[in-house]
Design a protein that fits this description.
12 strands; two-stranded antiparallel sheet; alpha+beta; Alpha-Beta Plaits; 7 helices
Length: 290
Amino acid sequence: MWPARPSTSASRRRVRATFSCWPPSRYEHGALSRGTGPPPRRGPSVDLDPTGIVTGKGPDRQRRQFLNYSFYRLDPVFRRLPADERRAAGTEFIELVRKWESSDDLILRTYSLVGLRAGVDFMLWQIAFDPLCFQSMEATIRRSQLGVYLSQVHCFLSLQRRSQYVNRMKGAGEGVELLPGQGKFLFVYPFTKTRSWYRLSPHARQGMMDEHIAASAPFKGVSLNSSYSYGIDDQDFVVAFDSDYPQEFVDLVGRLRYTEASLYTQRDTPMFTCAKAPIDAILAQLANMD
């Protein structure tokens, strides 16, 4: 028998997260959202000083959200343990995850990769203003009974910030509130641009991104949570597409392969297809807990 979900005010509230969002038409009331063409330009369309040297841009120390995508694999040895040991470890782990789900300091979503990706069993998507929250939760996991049999096989760290390519549009890129993980699926991968991309002129990069955004506009069933990893992880970005329709995501990525900006992709693997599921259902997929 699994433990009852704790009855707390936190479990009833609808927490919101802020992301760089794309395509911008999804969150606007402009012409593009009505299918009649691109929205009018508002303000400067190109950041002419991305290095900040000319304008002397200072550091941005505003409070922003960090994101962590942690992928785990369960050791098959766990499935050979006595039933009472499996049950005790599973019950403890479910209570642990639900405690963090009700935390005011962390937004947590759980996903299964069973049957969808070899070598990975589930993923925890964590969002917090303080990255040390991720460290605290991971330490708790490792001290648990189930944690003895878990390996963290991938971990991607990133930060929410405004996209320089969509900030000319009102309401795009910053200040957009989303409920993360609302789709049945989350498609996640690290993403790195080639260094030659950063040597292009600001206008050249903007033009390619305009094409990229326009090509994606028809795919209304897919939304993107894009975040930045410069200096805090190996990749430049972590991209996570939220959708109920895997087939639409496949068509979207296929179309974007033909855009000019894709020529400047250095890395966009490994790719993970994650199915949203509560933690008790995920553990039931991994081992017999009865």
